[in-house]
Amino acid sequence: MKTTLAFVCAAALSQVAFAQSVVNGDFSLEVPGNSTGNGWTGFSNDGAGGWRSSGGNPGGYFIMNDGGASATDPSISQTINGFVPGGLYRLTGDFASWIVSNAPFGGASFAVDINGTQVFTGLAGTLQEWRSFQVDFTAPDTGIVTIRFRAEINGTDNDFAIDNIAVAAIPTPATGAGLLGLSLLAMGRRRR
Known about the structure:
Layout: H1 2-16, E1 36-37, E2 40-43, E3 50-52, E4 61-64, E5 75-80, E6 88-99, E7 108-114, E8 117-123, E9 131-138, E10 145-151, E11 159-169, H2 173-191
Helix pairs in contact: 1-2
């Protein structure tokens, strides 16, 4: 009974207490525009893009810009280990239109990808006005997830900034019920 209870408790807590998180999700540390550093890898970002130490939401942030090169989407990505396979998670963050030029103002030009699949798109909006996004996903069997943010998608020249990127476990009703049951068992044992 003790072994079964310990296993159930460990499994339930591992889903709720997801310890691994996005490295430098608040962009407080410098991130290179086209290489890897401080948790992130940048691709196809020009000098108008890249990391900024202030002006974010708040503090540092990252601008994805490649000067309208239609063959590429400026982007930034991070690979995160330690997910519970099959577990439910929520990716959140802030994004803002940073430069809008030579493209429809309202076109979808910001994307969030998880493991190579586009899971969210954003429209160009009021310049430098921060908006939030959230995406729920199931962790793959490998327990490894790559998140990627792209600007200038769909042939637009709309550049975006990102900030406050985070991932958290979503407790399932079964996990919550299991934890409640474990709490009741523990209280019953104390009374004996």
